[in-house]
Amino acid sequence: MTESKLTLYGCKTSSATNRVRIALRIKNISYDYIEIDLNKGEHHSSSFSKLNIQNKLPLLRHGFETLTQSLSIIEYLNEIYPAVDLLPSSITGRAWCRSFSTLFVADYHPLITRRVIDILTKFSLTDKDIKEWKQQWLMESLRVADEMLSLRLKQHNFCCGDNPMLADICLYAQCESARKQGVSLESYKNISYIYNICNQIESFREG
Ligand SMILES: N[C@@H](CCC(=O)N[C@@H](CS)C(=O)NCC(=O)O)C(=O)O
Fold first, then answer.
1. Which domain holds residue 98?
2. Does residue 64 share a domain with residue 125?
3. Taking a C-beta distance cutoff of 8 angstroms, is the pair 182, 135 a contact?
4. Ordered mean pLDDT values, 10 residues apiece, the chain (207 residues)
């Protein structure tokens, strides 16, 4: 099964796609990439709807399997390519790593997605209102994450120890979204620390 071709459908502006691409690069997995341009609405095309009824990115095809949800995709990749583990070895470590990652993926990122912004726009919100909406949820996510990290960064460079893992990937992708929306990371000391280290690692930087 691991020999089957991997194809990732994503968009270069998509934070959820970014998570999966970072994981693929850290694990040095080769894959084909198909760009689905969210700006052009290509995720609503009938051909893409046939692949993902939810019309969301990313989507991974592996052999006959079609997977959605960035977190599940990364966990799947982690299981079929176990070298360079993206989860801690202890049970509590794994639980914390998943919990921290889910904070972004389930609680905060959905609030600033295109489908939500499209609805807000229908309620006559201005561009300025929308920007403030996005910034407020990005800042709230960073505030919570920074607090959660304050107890953990005493001896380590990354969220879960000495190597970048799922939690760092999700944090980094959220930081990239924040920066694109003009949110400075400077006041989030723990996050800035990890972000700057990750930024020196090629797998994290877009490419
Ligand atoms: N929980 C999903 C979120 C997927 C998602 O919302 N992706 C965005 C791009 S970052 C998307 O496809 N947006 C299209 C839309 O909101 O209509 C995941 O982590 O994969």
1. 91-199
2. no
3. yes
4. 88 97 97 97 97 97 96 98 97 97 98 95 92 98 96 81 97 98 96 96 86
pTM (2 d.p.): 0.96
User: Which amino acid is it at 1?
Assistant: M
Q: Is 15 in the pocket of ligand 1 (CB under 6 A)?
A: yes
Q: What is the CATH number of the domain that holds 56?
A: 3.40.30.10
Decide which of 49, 80, 111 is a domain's last residue.
80
pLDDT, residue 81, reads 97
Domain check: are 105 and 160 in the same one? yes
Q: How far is the CA of 148 from the centre of ligand 1 (A)?
A: 25
**Alpha carbons 64 and 115: distance in angstroms, whole number:** 29
d(CA 58, ligand 1 centre) in Å = 7
